[in-house]
Structure formats: structure tokens, C-alpha cells
Amino acid sequence: QGQMERILDGVQVDQIQCGANFCVILATKKGRQALYGWGANDAGQLGFDQTYAQEPIQIEFEHSIDHILCGDRHTAILTVDGRLFVSGANDHGQLGLEDCNKAVGFTQLSMPEVRQIAVGAEHTLALTTFGLFTFGRNNHGQLGLGRGAPDFISAPTLVKDLRERQVSHVRAFGGTTAAVDSEGLLYVWGA
Predict the structure, then answer these.
(1) With contact defined as beta carbons under 8 Å apart, do 146 and 130 qualify?
(2) Which residues, other chains included, contact 49 with Cβ-Cβ below 8 Å and sequence gap of 6+?
């Protein structure tokens, strides 16, 4: 415990993301993309059915990955062709599956082409060709849906205040969300 170890010999790590007590990496192994995860998996955030993984386990995923991101207990994957897949905790609708049931195994969301994603502790953003969609926990207004919006939303919902802006970048952390438009203007909301 507390000792640093080198792991995954023979793979080149391209991306690493960590949530609360778990990590997911995108790597290249023998010239092919490979996805690995380890740590806590009580909500299925690693995309397989095992409560805890002491060491990295290769995750079955058949699509070419552009980006991976982790919230506290959920993982989002953006594919090269603009599809969004999610797995893990969903108690605040952070997976966008229109319910609050956890997903063990990566499930594709039915959305327009996704260009970029961002993930907070318990909320998710998807920047699509039609605008910015948010879903999940909204107790601090982190979904950007205005006053009176519910504390959580389990379906991808368009951020109407930004629909006239060409959002170019999105980021999230904890209960905070930020977006930058094509003119370089910054918008921040949430905690």
C-alpha cells in the first residue's frame, strides 16, 4: 500500500482518466487500441460486472475511441465517429439514459453527432452538431438550464441559453460547468 508500481508493460498509454477510486486508460497494444480499467466498480463504472479490480483489466469495447472521461462513479466514452457511450452510476441521471438505473457495460446514447464531452462529479455534457446537451445532477445549476430546473435530469437536455452561440469547448469538474464560444467568450455556471 502506498507503493508506486509500474503496470501494463507492453502498452503505450494514450489517455488516463480517474474518478473516485477508479481509473480508466486508453492505450495502444500491439498497434491496436485497448481500454483498461481498475479500482472501484460498485456501480459498473469500469464497464464490466466485477465489484473491484485490483489490477488493470482490459475492457471489451469494439469502437474506435476518441476520448474517455470519468465522473465520481461513471465513465463516458466518445468514439471517433461521434457516438457517446456511458457506464456506471446513474442515481442522478448522469448517464442520460432517461432513467436512474446504473448501467454495467457501455451503453450508447441516442443523440446527434457528438463533437466533445465533459464530465463533472455527477453530470455529463455532450457538445453536438445541434448544440450543448447536459444531463445528471443539477443541485447547483451545473446543467445550465436556468432557475426552476429540477435537481436532476436523466435525459440529454439542450442548454437553450447557448443555442445561439457556437460553443467550441466544454469542461466540467465537480458541480461546475464551463463553455467557451467561437468568439472566445467564457460562460461558467454551477457551484
Answers:
(1) no
(2) 104, 105
Q: Cell numbers of 37, please?
A: 480499467
pTM of the predicted structure, to 2 decimals: 0.95
Q: For residue 103, what are the contacts with CB-CB under 8 A and spacing of at least 6?
A: 44, 86, 87, 88, 90, 95, 97
Q: Is 123 exposed, middle or buried (0-12, 13-18, 19+ CB in 10 A)?
A: buried
DSSP codes joined into one string, 76-121: EEEETTS-EEEEE--TTSTT-SSS---EEEEEE---SPEEEEEE-S
Q: For cell 481498475, what's the residue?
A: 38
Q: What is the C-alpha R_g of the chain?
A: 16
Q: How confident is the model at residue 10 (pLDDT cuts 50, 70, 90)?
A: confident
- Look at residue 2 in the predicted model and tell me its pLDDT: 61
